[in-house]
Design goal:
By secondary structure, this protein is α+β, with helices and mostly antiparallel strands. Helices cover about 65% and strands about 10% of the residues. A 4-stranded antiparallel β-sheet has the order 2-1-3-4. Helix 5 crosses helix 6 (about 95-100). The chain is elongated and about 90 Å long.
Length: about 190
């Protein structure tokens, strides 16, 4: 029993190899998601979810190799977290790293004109675009000054002036004007 426990704690693969394998898989997945995962990250449909779940299982052996030890798993996990922290730090400090790893936003609508090619390229449909416009307070694509699909799947929608809904500042201005009107109408005495 003690031999079984000690064998499960020891790695069957050299530590450096495990770190290199983990790093290689991590960078491969980052690049894969960088180039094909923009819409996937925005809105997971059941097919996308299945692919992501199976992807983790597919790359598991590439990371740990034939090693199923506790220490081997800890080394792989530590390497993944450390690599992620280094890349996040580098992306925040250096715009060129950020552009390389994260990418840039992709304009979907400009001045009310829909870029159908861009929509097809990122795998969106008209309903998804309309939903984003409605969530931003617009009614149609004509209300949109610019709509961009950001690198990690979020949408940025800027509506044309006049197409925007009422803001808190608008309500405060009206409230202030009403207060002045009420004060002017109050009987003095």
């Amino acid at each position: 029993m003690i031999a079984t426990i000690s064998n499960s704690l020891l790695t069957g693969v050299p530590v450096l190899e495990k770190v290199i394998r983990t790093a290689a898989v991590y960078f491969a997945l980052v690049l894969l998601l960088r180039f094909v995962g923009r819409r996937t990250l925005a809105q997971l449909n059941p097919f996308d979810l299945v692919v992501l779940l199976l992807l983790s299982n597919v790359v598991q052996n590439a990371i740990i190799g034939p090693d199923n030890s506790l220490i081997g798993g800890i080394i792989g996990a530590f390497t993944l977290v450390a690599l992620n922290e280094v890349l996040v730090w580098a992306s925040l400090r250096h715009k060129s790293v950020d552009r390389l790893l994260v990418g840039r936003g992709r304009p979907i609508i400009t001045e009310g004109k829909v870029d159908e090619r861009a929509i097809r390229r990122v795998g969106l449909d008209d309903e998804e675009v309309d939903d984003q416009i409605h969530m931003a307070g617009g009614g149609t694509t004509d209300d949109v000054e610019k709509m961009t699909l950001l690198p990690w799947g979020k949408f940025e929608v800027m509506l044309r002036h006049g197409a925007q809904g009422v803001t808190k500042a608008d309500i405060e201005r009206l409230d202030h004007k009403l207060s002045r009107i009420e004060a002017a109408l109050r009987p003095r005495g």
